[in-house]
Amino acid sequence: MRHDREPNPMDPNDRTPGGGYPQEGRVGLSPGLSPGLSPGLPPSLSPARPAGRRRTVALRVLALGVTAATLVGVAGAMHDAPPSAAGASAADASTAASAPDPTLPAPVVDMSISRQSEDPGKTVNLTIDDGPDPQWTPRVLDVLARNGAKAVFCMLGPDARAHPDLARQVVAAGHRLCDHSVSHDTAMDHKDVAYQEKEIVDGRRMIQEATGGAPVDYYRAPGGAFTPESRQIAAAHGMRPLGWNVDTRDFERPGVAKIVETAKAQLRIGPTVLLHDGGGNRAQTLEALEQLLPWLKDNGYVFSFPRR
Ligand SMILES: [Zn+2]
Description:
This protein is α/β, with parallel strands linked by helices. It has helices at about 35, 55-70, 75-80, 90-95, 135-145, 155-160, 165-170, 195-210, 230-235, 255-265, 285-300, and strands spanning about 125-130, 150-155, 175-180, 215-220, 240, 245, 270-275, 300-305.
């Protein structure tokens, strides 16, 4: 089986079978970070580059200086990056639209992983995963509405089915829907294609039934565990595979200030922000949104959606 999991196999929005999130032991770069970061990495961070001539070294130092400013904000996130994170190849492979597999249904939308905005300019795409949740989703909808913000809600099929009123409220408020599978199986990319297809197609059907047939525009694999096959299956059902650039790690509940700081800093990498309205106590995420959304507006960001 082919794999095109994003660089970090660890899920930033994992749910264990027990329903909680693993809180410790995560290593590696966030799946969304490397793809956005790698094009800007200074050559000096490339592990494969041998020591060169003095002029090359000087240029490298210059390049580092130039790019250092843009990297300051993500230094904290980079410290645990594996050496391979500097290589763009893995990220490119996961993002690129590989040739469709003729044995699978033909894609009707782009099957590469979307992370960029459909609008030009200084944009932000909020993506909110693992709901809908009766405790948190209404509050998230409220803070978004008060700030004129829009978002993509990546829902789990069974949760949409359990709370169709919430799923409909999301649609009525002008937000977009994303299929986040049935089981949130972050090892999905190691399972056979029939299993992946069932997780994707059933999740979409549950969301559509809950919303009375609203379009489901995106598919986000649990933990970014995409495969070429899962991307094609999603795209054959009209769902663009959806990645992210900014991983606030809000699922770890690092504190409101940390979530806000991380989002502000990593927005230099790219516009698509990962947050959660399900899977646990999301009070920190909610308060972070209260602070972040006005800041985004004050700093000239326009709320957009990821490209389809
Ligand atoms: Zn998730």
